[in-house]
Amino acid sequence: MLHRLRLRLKVIVLAALLPGAASAFETQATAAWVYDVTTHTVLMDKNADQPVPPASMSKLMTINMLFEALRDGRVQLDTSFAVSSRAKAMGGSTMFLQESDRPTVEDLIHGMIVNSGNDACVVVAEGLAGTEEAFSAQMTERARAIGMTASTFANASGWPHAQQRMSMRDLGVLALRLIEEFPEYYPVFAETEFDYKGRAPDNRFNRNPLLKLGIGADGLKTGHTSEAGYGLVGSAKQGDRRVIFAITGLPSEKARAEESERIVAWAFRQFAEKTVAKAGVRVAEADVFLGEATTVGLVPAQDLRLLVPALVQGQVEAEVIYKGPLMAPVAAGTPVAELVVKVPGLPDHQVQLVAESSIAKAGFMGRVGIAAQALMSRYLGDPAPAS
Fold first, then answer.
1. Phi, psi values for residue 137, rounded to 5°
2. Residue 58: CB partners within 8 Å, gap ≥ 6?
3. Letter string b/e over residues 12-40, b meaning 16 or more CB atoms within 10 A of that residue's CB
4. Interacting residues of 294 by C-beta distance below 8 A, sequence separation 6+
5. Residue 266 and residue 24: Cα distance in Å, rounded?
6. How many Cα atoms within 13 Å fall on the side-chain side of residue 229?
């Protein structure tokens, strides 16, 4: 039988709350996804699973493919790539590569991230897969393998194409992967200037508008086409918390910069990390059948720390769910229940609860007594209340 126990958990503040209520954020972006990495909390989801033109933000997938090649030992930072006539002819934002150049992998990483070089992306695609078409197919296949379900690629650069599509959630998932899987290369995203051979003085600056604001921003990638509008995949770290966001569809470069800064401020100032359940501290009890004890305490195996809107003080609603009664014996530390915490304005958070102590099986006579009591309760029922 499924048991549901409703309770209220007192929240213990772990971070100073700043003034103001954590009200819903009304973004100008046509699609957006905001994620608190530390507590694995989605703070905003606006059309986040809708495939849209990603513009240069899709370069993050090309960068990921190159980082994976580095990790696998297929290339090294000093490996040089040839520049084809196709790469040289790329328009838009470029490194101004020439066919006589032999840029290294390290050059190309900087060129794709800081300069947003379309030519650099084609060089990487051809260098790793032979053709950009083959590389695009590999990008799509790899995206599926790492959980990016709404992404398809027709090129390596984000150049407008009907089959070049990504969702904001996919871009956020990809950003998290780049941060966590490749910490040795991720710092390049925070570099503000790169000028390959002095050829791109007007294109040498990183377009990320947040990097110089002193708000903990350290990546990742802007994007813009007439079809997509202005977008940004960004990340910022303040204290122990990191926030990742992906937005698109802004009407101007100025609007993109302002909206990105507003999102970072909202994510850090309007939510606080709190402990809602302490490791080893009982939050509920579960019934036990045929055991030396009739109940067992339910406790989290570790502190449960969640992100809570600043206006929420004192308590949050929670529910304990378990299939019971539990059959003895029950070993201490065994997962036996689920705690569902309901934070206003955020998705429910689920965590396993374990048995607080071991409950041995009752002796023979004890089991006989328990079974007899259960049979009497089943067939006779509880005495009817007096009328």
1. -65, -40
2. 153, 157, 158, 164, 166, 223
3. eeebebeeeebeebebebbbbbbbbbebe
4. 287, 288
5. 10
6. 17
Q: Which two tokens stand for residue 80?
A: 């040089």
Q: Is the confidence at residue 385, as pLDDT, over 50?
A: no
Q: Which helix (H) or strand (E) holds 327?
A: strand 326-327
Q: How confident is the model over 166-198, as pLDDT tens digits?
A: 999 999 999 999 999 999 999 999 999 999 999
- Asked whether 192 and 257 are in contact (CB, 8 A), the reply is no
C-alpha span between 351 and 83 (Å, rounded): 52
In 3-state terms, what secondary structure has residue 310? Answer: coil
Per-residue pLDDT of 349-372, as tens digits, reads 888 999 999 999 987 655 556 566
DSSP 96-107: ---TT---BHHH
Q: Which of 384, 287, 270 lies closest to 330 in space, CA to CA?
A: 287
* Tokens representing residue 175 in the block: 């950003």
